[in-house]
Design a protein that fits this description.
This protein is α+β, with helices and mostly antiparallel strands. The chain has a single domain, classed as Lipocalin. It contains four helices and nine strands. β7 and β8 form a beta hairpin. α1 runs parallel beside α3. The radius of gyration is 15 Å and the shape is globular.
Length: 171
């Protein structure tokens, strides 16, 4: 997998869960994994396979990828990517689930205590999705849309890891 594909995937993963504050979710370290990534009906590599590919990169390339991700407030986790959500971000509903430089925006079209439906637009795509809040430490998201001219879909699962984000900074 090329470096640019890994970069786009890691940024895309941060976009997909879309504003997860319908519940009083916990601040701290969250891990977001994805599965069933599809583009034009073709299954894309799963998160575990992509993490393995990252581990197999030459040390210089891996370090470069990890530094780039850290600058955007993202790090590799055991099952996906990790982000830090501060209490202030959660209360202000300014969650770091999309790259601020991506040019993407989203709109919540329906909101309840356990489900948010949303629409999003990006320079290279658009679509809609649903986030289901399972608890204050877990939520899932299903996204369908068109990205780069191809029908795309993805499921993600977010799990709270710890209150302390360690060295990872909120973005």
């Amino acid at each position: 997998m090329r470096l640019s594909q890994l970069k786009n995937l890691s940024l895309g993963l941060c976009l997909l869960p879309a504003l997860a504050s319908a519940l009083e979710i916990q601040p701290g370290l969250w891990e977001i994994s994805s599965k069933h990534l599809q583009a034009d009906g073709q299954e894309a590599p799963g998160m575990q396979q992509m993490l393995e590919q990252m581990k197999d990169l030459p040390p210089e390339q891996r370090q470069m990828m990890e530094q780039m991700m850290a600058q955007r407030g993202v790090q590799l986790g055991d099952q996906g990517v990790r982000i830090c959500m501060s209490e202030e971000q959660i209360q202000a509903e300014r969650l770091p689930l999309q790259d601020p430089d991506s040019g993407c925006s989203n709109e919540i079209t329906e909101r309840s205590a356990s489900l948010w439906k949303f629409r999003f637009t990006c320079p290279d795509g658009q679509g809609e999705g649903e986030t289901h809040f399972l608890s204050d430490k877990e939520f899932t998201t299903q996204v369908n849309g068109i990205y780069g001219g191809q029908n795309s879909s993805m499921q993600s699962h977010a799990t709270w890891i710890a209150a302390d984000c360690g060295d990872l900074q909120s973005r």
